[in-house]
Write a structure and sequence with these properties.
The chain is an alpha/beta fold and about 375 residues long. The chain contains twelve helices and nine strands. Helix content is about 40%, strand content about 10%. It binds iron/sulfur cluster (2 copies).
Length: about 375
């Protein structure tokens, strides 16, 4: 998904959702009790993961894993899909998940393309849970039916994010409230997992008011809501218009307050201003493409481009320390949120400084010889 305002990192910002419609009175009470228990268990896990992330910098916090690139849609701003690729074999995905677990990864979010098109998605989610990691999913929402939602409950899904771009479908996006409202009602009724609805602004979305309509509907259905600025085709910053900025602030007020506080950088994005932060992509955040290569993120594929199975803590340390040239204008929320954990420690070096350091390291060794 191109925008990435995900809340897989709901660790910080999870808000409990109470569905507006949960069946007849008897089942209602049971269901509410069950959801309370699930919620509490999830919170305990989240806090332990946060504690671990703060105590040690030497493990990935969040990985986005792509089990297939194929998508049923073709959003005008997106560079992350095709219409032909096949799903990656389950055993291959499991071995990638095993490697992520061995690296100590806390959260795995399945993304795409449209991951709901993968025929073995439930087994993938189940395997994330078996390996003790938090399981998240980013989807365009088209494939949700009551039965499918119940299967995801059973598989152990913990967080879902759907991004809705507009109210009526247009040539830029068909991720539209009118098309998806029925799916949202199914989720409200049947999902045991946390659902976040993200509305978006910028990137060619015609009517900024739509973001407000989407956010209000999300709140009405008992979901959490966030707003993201859609990045440009190269993944970087594009200033919002005056009207877009106004809507952006209104939608933020409707959403989760903790999330808004954590996304302070979004105010700079809205103003089109660069800002300072330390991107820990390639280390605390990993993007694993369908070929199993580790990339900084969806918008910087190719760096470092090392197969996950060969990824070592040496690679992790190098990327942790490397300053990213694209950071000042980056709009990728989830990587920012991960970055908050370490923004106060371990200053980074430019790639040139890193290269110099490595060279002098080799020089020292040769000298020692
Ligand atoms: S729905 Fe498909 S085309 Fe649209 S943003 Fe997501 S991956 Fe890209
Ligand atoms: S700053 Fe980090 S997350 Fe943002 S585009 Fe660059 S590598 Fe990706």
């Amino acid at each position: 998904m191109l925008f990435v305002p995900f809340v897989p990192f709901v660790l910080f910002c999870g808000r409990f959702l109470w569905p507006s419609c949960i069946g007849p009175p008897g089942s209602h009470i049971l269901r509410v009790k069950m959801r309370k228990t699930t919620f509490l268990k999830r919170k305990v896990r989240e806090f332990s993961f946060i504690g671990r992330a703060l105590a040690s910098t030497r493990h990935p916090v969040l990985a986005h894993l792509i089990p297939m690139r194929r998508c049923n849609l073709a959003c005008g701003y997106c560079n992350e899909y095709d219409h032909t690729s096949k799903p990656i074999d389950l055993e291959i995905i499991k071995s990638r998940l095993n490697k992520l677990a061995d690296l100590g990864t806390s959260i795995v979010t399945i993304s795409g393309g449209e991951p709901m098109m993968h025929p073995e998605l439930d087994q993938i989610i189940h395997h994330i849970r078996v390996r003790g990691m938090i399981a998240g999913l980013i989807s365009n929402g088209y494939y949700f039916t009551p039965d499918r939602i119940k299967r995801l409950n059973k598989a152990g899904l913990e967080y879902l994010q759907i991004s809705i771009d507009n109210v009526e479908p247009d040539e830029v996006s068909r991720k539209s409230l009118r098309v998806l409202d029925k799916k949202l009602r199914y989720l409200s009724e049947h999902a045991d997992f946390h659902v976040n609805i993200n509305s978006v602004i910028g990137g060619g979305i015609k009517n900024p008011d739509d973001a407000l309509t989407v956010a209000r509907r999300a709140v009405e259905l008992g979901f959490s809501t966030t707003v993201g600025v859609i990045h440009d085709v190269d993944g970087t910053l594009k200033a919002l218009s005056v009207k877009e900025k106004d809507i952006f602030q209104q939608v933020k007020k409707l959403g989760n307050k903790d999330h808004a506080r954590l996304n302070w950088f979004q105010d700079s994005i809205a103003e089109g201003k660069p800002y300072n932060w330390r991107c820990r992509a390639g280390a605390r955040y990993l993007y694993i493409c369908e070929e199993g290569l580790v990339h900084w993120c969806s918008q910087q594929r190719g760096y470092p481009g090392i197969p996950l199975e060969q990824y070592t803590m040496e690679d992790f340390d190098r990327e942790y320390k490397t300053e990213k040239w694209c950071a000042p204008t980056c709009t990728l929320q989830c990587v920012h949120q991960v970055g908050i954990l370490d923004n106060w420690r371990d200053p980074q070096k430019t790639p040139a400084q890193m290269a110099e350091e490595q060279k002098s390291g080799v020089g020292d060794m040769i000298g020692a010889d």
